[in-house]
UniProtKB/TrEMBL annotation, chain A:
This is Succinate dehydrogenase/fumarate reductase iron-sulfur subunit. PROSITE patterns: 4FE4S_FER_1, 4FE4S_FER_2. GO terms for biological process: aerobic respiration; respiratory electron transport chain. Transmembrane segments: none annotated. The lineage of its organism: Bacteria, Bacillati, Actinomycetota, Actinomycetes, Micrococcales. It comes from Kocuria tytonis. GO terms for molecular function: electron transfer activity; iron-sulfur cluster binding; metal ion binding.
Automatic annotation (TrEMBL), chain B:
One of its GO terms (cellular component) is membrane. This is Succinate dehydrogenase. It is found in: Membrane. GO terms for molecular function: metal ion binding. Residues 14-33 have a biased composition (Polar residues). It comes from the Bacteria. The lineage of its organism: Bacteria, Bacillati, Actinomycetota, Actinomycetes, Micrococcales. Pfam families: Sdh_cyt. Coiled coil: none annotated. The keyword Heme applies. Keywords: Heme, Iron, Membrane, Metal-binding, Transmembrane, Transmembrane helix. Signal peptide: none annotated.
Amino acid sequence: MLLTVHVWRQAAAEEPGGFETVHPVQATEDMSVLELLDAVNETLERQGDEPVSFDDGCREGICGKCGVTVDGVPHGPDRNRASCMQSLHAYRDGDEIFVEPMRAGALPVKKDLSVEKKSLRRVSKEAKFPVAMKALNTAGCISCGACIAACPNGSGQLFVGTMLKHLPPLARTPEERDERAAKVLDAADQEFGPCSLLGDCTEVCPAGLPLQNLTAVTRENLHRKFPDRYPAPQGPAPGE
Amino acid sequence: MNPATQPSRERTPASRTAASPGTVTTPGRSSNGADHAAPAAANAWRRSLGAASSPDLKLAMAASGTVLSVFTVGHMAGNMQVYAGRERYNRYALLLRGAGAPVLPPNTLLWVARAGLLASTAVHVAAGTELTLRSLRAEGRTVGDVARQTTRRLVTLARNLPRPRVFVPRTEAPLAYRRAAFDGALLPDSFDARAPRTRPRGRRRSVPQIVARSMRSTGAVLGLFVTYHVLDLTTGTRPAASRSFEHGDAYGNLVGSLSRPVTAAFYAASMAALAGHMVHGLHTAALDTGLTGTAQRVRQVDVAAKAVGAVVALGNLSIPLAVQIKVVR
């Protein structure tokens, strides 16, 4: 099928950006979004334009590097798939597609479609980076940032909640546990917006993280404020 | 300034100043006390609400919202006595005024309850405003962006409304082009960088999703409704109240007010807003107090919130309906 792709062009972080219309783009329905962008670049090169730059990684849905917004939906039209694992079954011959970078205050645009995902890393670092990575790996989170981009509040509560949920078993002492959780809560509050339980994050998350992970943030906060009334959450239940 | 406040929080002090209640900033006016009053209010806002963390503000929202929800449930249950007749209903109204009668002077408990409700409303609105501003900042949007988007969306909605098709014979295409109003900003086809896109097939938003992201608009409707409701049935201020308003005759006032079709329709519409606001609000309150720890709990809370919202809205909705079809008169 032939598609018209409106692709976001932005020379640098501070420059103003806008859509550039690329036509025609030869695509098939089983292409991923990144393969569509490859096809866009082919058309651009044939027309003698500079190819569009986008985040690209393993193309197996496990590195968490990729991610663009397709028609207002982070990652693309399929639920719970990274951009590289999407398909174009939602589109028909002659359709127009808008491809933009992931949109959030915490994910500033670097160039064209690639964004800076350091805010996720900054929050992870507060919990001792290897430990945080271990917690996120246990849950299956690949730190792609789609939850933040999907949220109309720019909230990363699915990411933060998942980390906080899986952190406790990795701490040696209760003090260490509380300290890490408090640091993560503070960092998350600085980087991301508040959660309104809209559930958009769970629809885009490539790991399919569930809505109840959001509660880990509020539980840790309650435990921090009232340690006597709210005992420390002890991580996920077995088999969860 | 609070040293703990990070730069990301201070990025747009102007928008926060503009949104803080009771602050009227007049940029043109220099000198006088008015110039000092605005920063003082902004400072107070920054020190109280701005210093609180988002989960804490959400807790405040949950607490005040729960108070208001409990009141709404009680209010609805009490109002069901309208079906038991004039005498019973007016006795109930008197009971509320004279609660704690032998010990306390009349109206004491009533005013305590009113003060509590007003305080809850104030906390709810203030915390909600601060959270909204934070979410805008986290999304990298400004209040102006949101206003522009809302206008665009409303215009698109108005244009897409079904309208009667009238056959117009085709004429020659006009040769001269007219410049579009507002430089084409209101044209739905001209896309700007931040305008919402049409979501792909299979990913269009469902009604519950739309209701969930309409908390601010349903909240605004409820604020207007409560104001009107108090003027109508508590103070009896014309023209909000009906012509037959009479202090002490709660039943007669209710029937007099709701027998006006426009008022009845407004009450009914407000109850729809109340249902939407309560369903998502109760669900969120459960999240913010850490009740939804497992998938099963999430489902239970969802069902419970929908049940409470539906019961309150349907109970309240039945009254204007009953008055309109003359079951209650």
